[in-house]
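Dear colleague,

Following up on yesterday's call, I've attached the two folding results inline so they're easy to grep. Please treat them as preliminary; we haven't cross-checked anything against experimental data yet. The first protein's sequence and structure tokens come first.
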Amino acid sequence: MTRPTSIPDALHRAAVYIGRHGWTRDHRLYDSHDGCQRNCPVHRTGMFPASILGAVRCALVGRPKWFLTSTPPGTAEAYAATLDHLNYHLSSYGAAGLRAPVVPWSQAPRRTPAEVVAALRAAASTAPRRPFAGPARLAPVVPLRPRTSRSDRPSAGLFDLPHPA
């Protein structure tokens, strides 16, 4: 399977993932899958029911992934760009009768997997078709000296003022 190359592609694949493997309204990435006797589709395939955030990760990586530190270069930037557009779409246009960012929208009472899939597809239709940009160039990290004692703090700080009598 090839990686998605654009925001619409990633959102379509996230919709397919939820349609195929299930959705969880939980704020975590994937369903905790407690109480199973290891004889279920999750254990056979390794594909957990996912929240919207988890489904986008699966779309970009190809499988459930809790951390993006060990993914190909550009994955974290693609994830951020996709979620940025999804937040914009759900906040501006709304879906299923609610305008809100991704997490509050998905945790609304009586939200259904079909509404989630439809919202992902609608957001894909409003996304720019240009390919993901390469890894962002970040500013260099400025090394800071760690504080080791109280004498390292500024002398006239907010918390150093005397208490009123």
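Below is the second protein, in the same order (sequence, then structure):
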Amino acid sequence: MQLQDHLPVDHRLGQVYRYSAGAIGVFLIVFGILGFTNHVGYFSTNGDHVLGMTSNGTLSLLSVLFGALLIGGAAIGGNTASTLNISVGILFILSGWVNLGLLDGNHNFLAFHMQNVIFSFLVGLALMLFGMYGRVTTHLPYDNPYWRSRHPRATGGVNQLPPRALPH
């Protein structure tokens, strides 16, 4: 089964994917815009403080782009928002690890400091958690479309519930 398959567009899990992507996307856009207002150079390794973190022009631009991407995924919703949350979450975690290695060096082109690294890890984990919510667990309810697609014999087909889960 692929992650983007089998979830009905109107399934209640779509709200989790949509709202989480939208909220984090809005925060990233606000952070990026506030970073632009400080007029820090695009490749400054020191950056300027914005919302408790440091930022430069490149980080501001990336924040706005990823924020817009997440809001676009939230507007589409459903599987797209979920898959996008997982993918962007992985990128945030990778960014945290890479920038942790670049701290206090001459190649710190995003002007990361430790608070940025921690933020990157936390946002990455949150996005992955929201993206995987209801998709990746061993205790999915019988009416979950992912459970049905993983157990076609028990359900008699992907679109049917197993006999023990039918309402009385």
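For the second protein, one point worth flagging: The longest helix spans residues 13-37.

Best wishes,
A.L.
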